[in-house]
Amino acid sequence: MKKLIIINGPNLNLLGKREPAIYGSLTFTEFFEEIKAKYPTVQIDYFQSNIEGVIIDKLHEVGFSFDGIILNAGAYTHTSIGIGDAVKGIETPLVEVHISNTFGREAFRHQSYISAHAKGVILGFGLQSYELAIQSFL
Fold first, then answer.
1. Hey, which of 49, 114, 127, 137 would disulfide with 54, CB 3.0 to 4.6 Å?
2. Does 99 appear as a known binding residue?
3. Model confidence over 15-58: pLDDT tens digits?
4. Domains observed in the chain
5. Which of 39, 76, 98, 113 is catalytic?
6. In whole angstroms, what is the distance from residue 26 CA to residue 124 CA?
7. Known catalytic residue: 110?
């Protein structure tokens, strides 16, 4: 059984409430339950933190024992050299995901400290970005 983890960064705990025109009205908990039901032969874990260092610790924890990591680092994507270095330092392949098309948003969101160290990047497909990432590991 494949062992995957979705790691979400800051403010993604507000999905379903935060800017529904961009992020939709489904909470991540609701979406996660749907995804787990859709892929019953895959172990999919979930972790969310608003704190940069906690995300780095989680990457270190799972980065040598899981089959894949799906990371939406939120705004830390564009600011955190530390998260980028953590992704570079682990062995588990990682797909960077974003719900919105970051290139259609503010210019500062066009930079990622994660992309260069990721297996791939999926953005702009709403919550389906996560499912596309899961499929990339299967």
1. 49
2. yes
3. 888 777 777 788 999 999 999 999 999 999 999 999 999 999 99
4. 2-137 (3.40.50.9100)
5. 98
6. 16
7. no
